[in-house]
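Justification of resources, computational component.

The compute hours requested in this renewal are based largely on the per-chain cost of generating structure records like the one below. Each record pairs the submitted sequence with a full structure-token output. That output is archived, and it is also reused by downstream analysis tasks.
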Amino acid sequence: MSLPPLDPDDPQFVLFVRSKRLPQWFPFSVVSGGSQAKLLTKAMENDLGKKVYGNTLTKNIAGVVYKDMSNIKKAVFNQYPRLKEAKELEFGYKIRKEESMQGTFGASGVVPIPPQEELKGIVDKVKDFFSGSS
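The structure output for this chain reads:
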């Protein structure tokens, strides 16, 4: 995977994937965030901001990943054919802060993205409960 130029205006996120059974993360994409991502990453530059806004950023990135899951899986399996054998995939991300390949694509500091089911809000869970009880 080639490294796109560092965006001076908007934050960039490196997306990672791994098999649920294996602990090794593999980078598969770099995406740029918009104004909301910029506000969240700026707020997370201190410990209080990380505690308050960390989950919000993770949920927003998760929404992007899960929304386009079929295309993401195609890209992942194209780059890492051995992951086709995985029964379950886990995703993660980290905020790109530097130009170096090792720092950007290295697995240290990857924030795991919770499974899609864990990201549902209470309203979604109630809807699912009632729609499943026919």
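The CA atoms of residues 2 and 101 lie 9 Å apart. The two ends are 48 Å apart (CA to CA).
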